[in-house]
Structure formats: C-alpha cells, structure tokens
Please model this.
Amino acid sequence: MARRRNRGRKVDGVVLLDKPLGLTSNQALQRVKRLFDANKAGHTGSLDPLASGLLPICLGEATKISGYLLDADKHYRAVCKLGVKTSSGDAEGEVIAERPVGALSREQVLEVLAGFVGTIQQIPPMHSAIKRDGQPLYKLAHQGIEVEREPREVTIYQLDLLRLEGDELEIDVRCSKGTYIRTLAEDIGEALGCGAHVILLRRTGVGRLDASRMLDMETLQSLAEQGQEALDASLLPMGDALPDWPAVQLSEDAAFYLCQGQAVFVPRLKERGLVRLFAGDARFLGIGSVLDDGRVAPKRLVATA
Model:
C-alpha cells in the first residue's frame, strides 16, 4: 500500500501564536497550518480552550524540535476565584463546593504562596489529557468516572502575588513542565481554607520564548492576505527556537561528517549537554549532545537542503 503524501508546501520554522480563548490547541494548530499551507505541523504542549497565550507551533522540519519545547519551563498568569471549587478546577466545571472567603490579608496569602515554591507533589486533575489504559482522563471525567492518580513531582520556581481583590486572586507562576495551574490554584485555595478555581489563565512564556514576539490569529490572517512571503517572514527560525541552549559552530568538514551520523571534535569546546548545531555558514543543523571526550554527537538533525 502506497504511503499517503503530505499535502501542502515545505515551510520550516516556528509560529509564536497567541492562542485565543475558545479554541483547543489542535484547532489553533490546524488554522495555522492552513494559513501557511504547510505540509507538516505540530504544537508544543496543549493549552485548554479557556486558556490563552503562547503556543509555539512548529512547521515542517521544526516539528523535530517540538519535543524539546514541550520539555521547557513555562510561565503563566492566572486569576483564581476564591471560595468556589469546581469539578474541573476551572470555570468550565460544575460548582461542587462553596465556602466563605473571609478577610484575607495580603500577608496571609504571601505566606501560603511561599509554601508552594520549590519541588512539590501534584495529583493530576481528572480533566486532563493523561491516559489510563489508553483512555484520556478527561473522557472518563465526562462520563462521571474518577480513578486514582499517582502524585507527580513538579517544580514551582517563582510564585508572585499580583492582585488580591475580594474573592479574586491573581498570580504569576514560573514552573516546570507538567505543572497543572488548575491544581495549583485548588491547592492554594485549600491552604487558604476557602477553596478556589481558575477563571482566567494566560501562558506568557515557554523556556526563554516570551509574549513579546507572539502573533495573534488576526495578524497572521492579515499577513496571509499579503502573500506567502510576508507570512513566512513572521516565522521564528528553527535555530532560534531554543535560545537558552548553547550554540556550537561547526566547520564545513565537521558539519559534513556530523550529518553522516558521526561524532565530531570541536576545538576549544567548553559546553556540555545538549547544544544547537550550526554549520560554518550559520545554517542550522539540529540538536547535538556533547560527549565526555569533548566530541559532539548528532541527536536530532533537520533537513536543511
């Protein structure tokens, strides 16, 4: 049976999309893919329909680095409604408990927030994409089924109080991958003695990629109407999508052998771990790993021809 060929054109790069409210991440992905007429596309970690903000969408060869963006730390701003607990931990769920908020002081809230900074345990919510026996938990939740979930270790690097007004609490969170802000809000609510759920969530950062370079759907549509050249100019080059990783320049000879799958020696290399690889002409080659003996081995290469 012949393999089905991808339709669309070959276009490589990353769209820093400002995902609007109301769309699933996959719906946003498909819209962007159609605008670019791209033959291949993938996103780098889901945002709920009720969440907005930074959703990097990888086109073409950039899909090969999407997993590394998925693993990156995240930055969020969230507004929590105190005194009300819902079945999903956000405004989409049914109200399952209400408690008085009381007169919370800023000092009380700051003390509680400080207790969540660092490595903590989270129990993933039932309304999540985690699978149990091949079935996403949110599908079980929609059937009224709740199953036991194992706690997961996540890290909260920074948790700042932005606003405390009546029964609304606004926070700024920098955290590791896999952190559920809905769960964090619920746990903060329990620690405050009143419960809480998220009513507004916006992602403002993925790794060192931040909101300053985001493009919304309306802007992308306007660029598409100007033509493919204008649209393609909005793409973040693949080599710039992981700015916190060291960049290693290879000679043309070293680049040739590395692209054949061989580890190569790079003089005076001080880096360790994963690095971005560039040929002498600044052409992005992909991701490499620095070995103990100082050589660089290919880990995930992209087709640049």
Observations:
- Residues 13-72+209-239 form a domain with the Pseudouridine synthase fold (CATH 3.30.2350.10).
- Helices lie at 25-36, 66-70, 106-114, 137-142, 181-192, 217-226, 228-232, 252-259.
- Residues 223 and 229 are 9 Å apart (CA to CA).
- The chain has a mean pLDDT of 89.
